[in-house]
Amino acid sequence: MTHSLMPLSGTKEEIYIQLLPQLQHLVRDEENHIANLANITAALKSALGFFWVGFYLVEGPWLVLGPFQGELACTRIARGKGVCGKAWEKQQVLIVDDVDKFDGHIACSSKSRSEIVVPVISSNRVIAVIDVDSEQLAAFDNVDRRYLTEIADLVAGLPGLKAF
Ligand code: SME
Fold first, then answer.
1. Which of 55, 102, 157, 160: disulfide with 33, CB 3.0–4.6 Å?
2. Distance of alpha carbon 63 from its chain centroid, rounded?
3. Cα–Cα distance between 43 and 159 in angstroms, integer?
4. Residues lining ligand 1, judged by CB closer than 6 Å?
């Protein structure tokens, strides 16, 4: 099945608002979660111009790299390590304005300056995280927190996605 995004414009919040129903539409008829996560990362990258956006999927004590858009990335992150592992451990969104000031930040790319990580929670368990990196300092705010959390909720309900 072919898909394309409708043109998106306006402020970051307006773009998220236009994007959300399109993401819901995008995943509606597909039951394979890898295909769905891959298309969600592509849509986020093209709509919002993120430097790096991707999923890490929970597998035992690890977050394992899933579908993403951007430069090569670390494949495994232990629970509690890095921004991703901390967001998993705390089960909460983490916004880091300056990654150099985050104790234990894992630098997959030296170009990344700020980051947001949003846990995907299903039945009170983190099953994945959404990680977004920017080349700019302090690129993420409560608008990203709100809409990436809505996207995480959409992802939590996808068939086939569970923690291993
Ligand atoms: N910076 C992350 C690692 C993943 S990459 O940014 C893609 C972290 O500290 O968990």
1. 160
2. 13
3. 19
4. 52, 73-74, 77, 82-84, 105-106, 108, 112, 115, 131, 133
Å from CA of 97 to ligand 1 middle: 13
Per-residue pLDDT reduced to its tens digit, 83-120: 999 999 999 999 999 999 998 898 888 899 999 999 99
Cα separation, 105 vs 37, in Å, equals: 24
Report the alpha-carbon distance of residue 45 to residue 114 in Å, rounded.
16
Domain boundaries, the chain: 12-156
Q: Indicate the CATH number of 12-156 among 3.30.870.10, 3.30.450.40, 3.30.565.10, 3.40.190.10.
A: 3.30.450.40
- Report the residue count for the chain: 164
Would you say residue 144 has pLDDT above 70?
yes
Q: What sign has the CA pseudo-torsion 112, 138, 57, 48? A: negative
CB atoms inside a 10 Å sphere around CB 30: 16
